[in-house]
């Protein structure tokens, strides 16, 4: 049976020239409406101020005609996710986020519900990292140890959010993002890496994967040179491993 998974994976909640989530308003609203969703659970685990973070997101999305509730306000996170139709996982520290997802027994639960189409997923930054095969290509510092780097696995490749392919200061002689991704790709366990530029959105629609938003992406793999993709590109071939 074909996959029914539905997800929107954002490089970030912020994009230059836009207010918070404004660049993704049309995509998120359409995504929720098409799936008959009015209530959205926000998961603030990538930061420590759960109330403040949830309020910031709620103040934006509620104005679009939806209702956002923080997962931390439910006494039993597993039950809340089991009964939910839609979740949004925000950005922050990816290691902290994944540790908390494992601690609350949510990783496999989310994967199962997303795979069978009973839960739709929106992720941003760290929330996008944990939607992939693993968090090996996050930009975040490992401030805490999750029990595994393996993530939810909505897509079978890795993502590098906030991807930038040039050094802003030409005097900088340190590693570039490309070099760090290349080091990962030398590992036996490495998966392809999609660098999402700021403002990029991946729409997972069953067996289809379309690049949306206001900016493009770059694909890295061991077998090919890096490839540039513009908004509107069909990246469904990346889902072949599912």
Automatic annotation (TrEMBL):
Tell me which EC number(s) this protein carries: 3.4.13.21
What GO cellular component is one of the record's annotations?
cytoplasm
Mark the transmembrane ranges: none
Query: Could you tell me which InterPro entries the record lists for this protein?
Result: Class_I_gatase-like (IPR029062), Peptidase_S51 (IPR005320)
What are the protein's GO molecular function terms?
dipeptidase activity; serine-type peptidase activity
EC class of the enzyme, as a word: hydrolase
Looking up Pfam families in the UniProt record yields: Peptidase_S51
The family note in this entry says:
Belongs to the peptidase S51 family.
Know the name of this protein? dipeptidase E
Supply the gene name: LOC114244594
